[in-house]
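Take a record:
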Amino acid sequence: MSGQHHNHDHDHHHGNSPCSQMECYTNTEMIVREDILEKAKELAELISTSNEVQFFQQAEKQIASNDQIQVLISAIKKKQKEIVAFESFENKKMVEKIEKEIDELQDQLDNIPIVNEFRQSQEDINYLLQLIMTVIRDTVSEKITVETEN
């Protein structure tokens, strides 16, 4: 170790910097340990082999190749653009009419089983990810709490 490094176990201020006692890190300066990133990638790989993700990918393919679904999605997108146009003309009647048409198309879409299953699998994946984040956060918090109580 070179003589330039010294321990920060004493109080001192560097000029008028607001960071006293602790090193300051901005997000860009924070160096994430390679091993942590590596584990995160391993976890992501594991998650991508889960039933939830597998099902999601199959449903996505089925939706992409289903003409009936694609026609409905295109019609909804087209009508959403029409709404924007009529809103700019402040034509409330047409906006309401098109909104009703969109609701009807949306109902047709929602009544297709694979669409519902796809949405459900999206929710399952989000739930799984939130659960993982909660476990990580709680475990880290416990460790911090235990260490600061000593």
Q: What stands out?
A: The CA atoms of residues 72 and 97 lie 17 Å apart. Confidence is low (pLDDT under 50) at residues 1-15. The first helix runs from residue 34 to 48. The two ends are 30 Å apart (CA to CA).
